[in-house]
Amino acid sequence: MVKKIILMFLSLLTVTVIGIGAYGLTILNQTTGTLSKTYKGFGNETNVIAENKPMTILLMGVDTGSGSREDPWAGNSDTMILVTVNPQTKETTMTSLERDILTNITSDGETVQAKLNSAYAQGGAKLAIKTIQDLLNIHIDRYVMINMKGLVQLVDKVGGITVNNPFDFDISIEENEPEYTAKIAPGRQEINGDQALVYSRMRYQDPEGDYGRQKRQREVIKKIVEKVLSLNSLSHYKGIIDSVSDNMQTNIALDSNSLLQLLGYKDALSTIHQYQLKGEDATLADGGSYQIVTSKHLLKIQNIIRKALGLKEIKTLKTNAYLLDGDEELKNASSQNDMPAASSEEAPVYQEFNQLPVVPSTQDTGVVTPQSSVAPVTPVAPAATESSSVTPTVPSE
Description:
This protein is α+β, with helices and mostly antiparallel strands. 31% of the residues lie in helices and 17% in strands. This is LytR family transcriptional regulator.
């Protein structure tokens, strides 16, 4: 299936915020009507932006198949990046989430084991947000989705970007997807939108596979942000916003009030730190290939995100992920002093389930087998997720 994924909301946010800062009411009046059509909220959004406090944004790029689907938003969320933006520390973090992480997705009282990216296909943005909140044990304040067409247009509208192809061969996906003929030569290159799409999607030739692709996706986001920061033309800002707005959905109300409030986050976009939630390769009894996380790594990522939001470190791992290690100390350590008590409405309840056995595979694949020194453990049900500013709210199903 053709992957058309990448998200560029940081760039759009930067375009809008910088544009308002440079051109004031002119850009504000010309863009609010255009941006208003991107809004798709759930009715439970917090006031974090109005209060200018650290916030989390889930970026999702949707796999839209061959492009022939009637619904441009149907598919899996094959790109997922959890962003924190902190106006106090003036820093932003981007944490890539491996799409094949084996997790427990709960909807309508039923829990199924599936890849993380399938939550969106099962229940749209609401279920994807809920599932990732439970995975990371953190409240997600806002979300943004963008499709492939938005990436191509955005890169072209900013006049292209500069990237560095670290390989000694051309980056191309034409062999697997003949409709995409763009190539990126080795070394430092100026690329257009079509090339940026290929650069962001190639993984089969990359020794790091999907992790290498995630690195290039984050590189493209950073390069677009840098390019937008260098723009000095009102027409540039308006053209970018016009092109991207048709290919984006978000629960950030981009009206005149909120756009002015977003100016408070401008400085945080200048410093971006990048992280990845990684797992171990595993082939399960259903024949599928998955990524299975370890408790220590997942807890480390959870605390990186918490630190970025100004929250205190936690000792206990709360997650809905299928875990591939037996660190009972992490799993069972008391957390009464670390996490708030949760009411039954706030904390999802997970039933016991049968772990799928891992199918033995050859040693050189890096796949974890039953003979490994670690054993799978049943995850602890997440407590109420926590935000730096508000009482946790999980989108209703």
